Amino acid sequence: MDTIGILGAGAMGSGIAQVAAAAGHNVVICDNLTLALTKAGKGVQATLKTLVEKEKMTDAEAYALYSKIKFSDHMSDFRDCTVIIEAIREDIEQKQIAFKSMEAIVEEGTILASNTSSLSISAMGAQLRHPERILGIHFFNPAPLMRLVEIIPALQTDLEVVDKARNLITSWGKTTVLAKDTPGFIVNRVARPYYGESLRILDEGIADEATIDWAMRTIGGFRMGPFELMDFIGNDINYAVTEIVFQNFYFDPRYKPSFTQKRLVDAHYFGRKSGKGFYDYRNGAAMPEPLKDEALGREIFFRVLVMLINEAAEALYLQVASRDDIDMAMTQGVNYPKGLLSWADELGIEKVVEKLDDLYVEYLEDRYRCSRLLRKMMRENRKFFNA
Ligand SMILES: NC(=O)c1ccc[n+]([C@@H]2O[C@H](COP(=O)([O-])OP(=O)(O)OC[C@H]3O[C@@H](n4cnc5c(N)ncnc54)[C@H](O)[C@@H]3O)[C@@H](O)[C@H]2O)c1
After folding, report:
1. Which domain holds residue 219?
2. Do 20 and 113 fall within a single domain?
3. 52 and 131 share a domain?
C-alpha cells in the first residue's frame, strides 16, 4: 500500500493525514514548525476521541489509526512515500521551493500533489525535473467530513498520474471531480457570486447582512447565509481567495472583491475565530434580526442565484469541468441545496437570462453579462439535463 506524505500540518494537512491513515496507509506528515506538529497531533487525537465516544470506532482502532501517522520536522522522511500532498501556505513561491526540495528526495515515480485552493498547478510543475508527476488534489475543509475532492491535472501531467490519483482518492471514500487548471478550479470559482453579489447587495443598502442571510437560508434553502458563512470560513481566508481569483482572471469585474470585506480584514474582524466579523460573536452580544420581507427576500435570493448559475454555465462553456462534475462539486463541496445547472433547468433558462439582462441594462457593468451558453441554450430551447 502507498505510503502517503503530507507537507504542512495545518488545518488541511492534519485532516488529510487522518483521512489517509483511516484508509489504511502509513502517513508521514511534515511541518517546519514543531508547534504545528504538536497541535496537529493533539487535533487528530481529539477527533479520534470524539469518534470513540460516539462509538464510531473502538479505542484499539483509534490507537492503530494514530500510530500510522509519523510526525516529522524533516522532508527527508518522505523518502519512501509514493504520493505526497502539499498543504502549506497559499504562496506560489513557497510551494515551488517546497516541490523542488521534495523532488530531490523522492523516487522518480512519486506523485507530487498540491492542495492549493486557487494557484496554478502548471506553475508549480514548471520548477520540476519531472513535471508529469504533479497535479492538484484539492480537499475541502474539514477534510475528514467533506466528501468532495477536485482533481486538477497541470498542463504537464501524465494521464496515468491522473488515473492513479483519482483511484487512490476514490478508495478513501471521496467523490472526485476533474477540473481544468484555471483560477479557483470549480468550487472556488463558481461560488464567488454567493459572497460577491451578497456583498454588493449589502453595499448598495438594499438589505443588511441578517436579511440577506435569512433570504438565502429560508427562501433559497442554503445551509448557511453568505455573511455567516464568510464569518465561519474567516474573512481573511475568504477575501484572499476572492482577491487571487480576481487578479488571476485579469481583473474580470465578475470577481471584484468588496471594500466592506477588506475593511473587516484590515481591522482583524475575521469572523467567528476573532470574535467579530460581519456579526458580533462575543459573549452577550445579540444577533441582529432580519427584516422578514418575503418580496425583498425573493428578489435577493433570485439575484444571487442567477449570478451563481451564470458562473456555473460559463465554467461549463469554457470547459473547466463537465456538466455533472460542476453540479456535483457545488452540492458536495459546499453543500448547495441543488446543482446550479439543474436549478437553471428547473427555473427555466429564459427566466435566468431575462434577470441577468435586466441587471446588465440597469448597471451597464460587464459583471452582469450573461454567459453565451445560457443565451444559446435559450434560443435553442435546450436544458442542461434531459434534453
Ligand atoms: N483552510 C481551508 O479552508 C482550505 C481549504 C482547501 C484548501 N486549502 C489550501 O490548503 C493549503 C493549506 O491551508 P491550511 O488552511 O491548512 O494552512 P495552515 O496555515 O493552517 O497550515 C499550513 C502549515 O504549513 C506549514 N508550512 C509552511 N511552509 C512550510 C514548509 N516550507 N515546509 C513545511 N511546512 C510548512 C506551516 O507551519 C503550517 O503549519 C493552502 O494552499 C490552502 O489554500 C485550505
Report:
1. 187-387
2. yes
3. yes
Active site includes 115? no
Active site residue 235: no
Alpha-carbon separation of residue 267 from 160, 233, 272 (angstroms): 47, 17, 14
Q: How many domains does the chain contain in total?
A: 2
Q: What is the CATH number of the domain that holds 46?
A: 3.40.50.720
Q: Are residues 155 and 220 in the same domain?
A: no
- Helical pair 340-347 and 294-317, crossing angle rounded to 10 deg: 120
Residue that has been written with the C-alpha cell 435570493 in this structure: 301
**Averaged pLDDT in 10-residue chunks for the chain of 387 residues:** 94 95 97 96 94 94 96 96 95 95 95 94 95 97 93 98 97 97 96 98 98 98 97 94 94 97 98 96 93 97 98 98 98 95 97 98 97 97 88
| 287 & 249 share domain | yes
Both 274 and 166 in a single domain?
no
Please check whether residue 343 is in contact with residue 327, taking contact to mean a CB–CB distance below 8 angstroms: no
**The domain boundary residue, chosen from 181, 196, 219:** 181
| Ligand 1 atom, smallest distance to 14 CA | 16
Among protein residues, the one with the nearest Cα to ligand 1's atom 3 is 141
Q: Write out residues with Cβ below 6 Å of ligand 1.
A: 7-13, 30-33, 36, 87-90, 94, 98, 115-117, 140-141
Q: What is the pTM of this model?
A: 0.94
Q: What is the rounded end-to-end Cα distance, in angstroms, of the chain?
A: 44
Q: Tell whether omega for the bond before 193 is within 30 degrees of 0, i.e. cis.
A: no
179 phi and psi angles, rounded to 5 deg: -130, 145
